[in-house]
Amino acid sequence: MSKETGLVLGEHRLDRPARENRAGPGVLFNSAIFLVLFLCVYLVYWHLGQRGKQYLIIVASLLFYAWYSIPFLLLFLGLVSINYLASIQLLRHKSRLLLTAILGLDLGVLGFFKYFYLLAHTAGEILGLPYLAALKTNWEEDYNLTIVLPIAISFYTFQMIAYVVDSYRSSITEPTSATKFFLFILFFPQFIAGPIMRASDFMDQIDRPYLTKDRIINGSLYLLMGIVKKVLIADRLGLITTRVWLDPASYDATALIIILPAFMMRIYCDFSGYTDMARGMAKLLGYEIPENFAGPFLSRSISELWQRWHITLSTWLRDYIYIPLGGSRLGESRTIINLLITLGLGGIWHGATWPMLLWGIYIGLFLVLERLLRQRTLLPASRPFQAVRIVYVLTIFAFSAVFFNSPDLSTTTGILARIFQWERGLPMPEWDTAISLCILAYSFNFFQYTYRARAFLNARPALRLSLLLILSPLIALLVFLFGDVGGSFIYFQF
Question: Which of 27, 90, 275, 411 is most buried, most CB within 10 Å of its CB?
Answer without folding.
Answer: 275
